[in-house]
Structure formats: C-alpha cells, structure tokens
Design brief:
- There is one protein chain.
- By secondary structure, this protein is α+β, with helices and mostly antiparallel strands.
- The protein has 2 domains: 1-34; 38-152, Protein of unknown function DUF192 (Jelly Rolls), CATH 2.60.120.
- 27% of the residues lie in helices and 32% in strands.
- A 7-stranded mixed beta sheet has the order 5-4-6-3-2-1-7.
- A hairpin with a 2-residue loop joins strand 1 (38-41) and strand 2.
- The longest helix is centred in the N-terminal third of the chain and has 30 residues, at 3-32.
- It is globular.
Length: 153
Amino acid sequence: MKVQPFIIAGLGLILIGAGFYFRADVNQKSAAIVLEPSFTIRGTEFKAIISDTPALRKKGLSGRESLGAGQAMVFIFDRPELVGFWMKDMRFSIDILFLDDSMRVISFARNVSPQTFPESFYPDAPARYVVEFVAGTLDRLGVKKGDLTEIRL
C-alpha cells in the first residue's frame, strides 16, 4: 500500500490550492467594495482628492490644467488653523470652502482666479478642513455659512 502517501499528499496539495483560491476570491470581493474618498455638501457628492500631508497641502492644485466638476480637493489639517490659501502656479479659477472641526462651513471664497496671486485667502475662524472646487460650484449649490458637510475617507 505505497499508494496511500501519494493520495494523502495529493489531497493536501488540493486543500492548499483551494485555500489560496478562496483567499484570493475573498480579497477580490473586498477590493470591489473599497470606496473612494468623497466629499458631500448640500446633497451633492464629489470625488475627493485628499491633501493631508505638508507636501500635498503645499502643492494643492497648482500646476494642474483643471479639476473635474465632480471632483474636490480636500485639505485636512491636524487641528484648526488660520491657514491662508493662494493661487501660486494655478491655471484655473476655484471656489474655496473653509470648515471647522465639526465640518460646518465657516466661510468661503468664490471664483478665486489665478490673477489674485500673491493675495492669500483666510477663513473667518480657524479651519480644520479646506475644500477646493471648480469656480461656480458654491453658487450652483447655494452653499452658505453653517452648512454641514461630510467627508468619507
């Protein structure tokens, strides 16, 4: 009965292979439900481009040709700050939205053009989050102070 070790070894390989198959299948299903970061205001959801490091915050949208109408750049700070934003190396106009810790609108700047550089734009109070959109977005949505927003990371 020398065949028995081969059968056991063969069954072991089948079980190992099945384990890899099912593990890969679970990973594929998990990857399918991963959600992209988003930002929502007044019932409208935007695909969020997250800037949460000093280097990303410094670069912002500078050098880009455009930002899609369904996109927003979301700057996340460790704590609320009176942080200024300028249009250095910008190629298109934007709306800037300043949010507090609870993600309520503190203030905003509408239709800020690249020609405003080197002027800086500041919130009315310390902001924890700053969101940039294509110019005209805040008017289109009717955004006002006190509006509650949501970020899904």
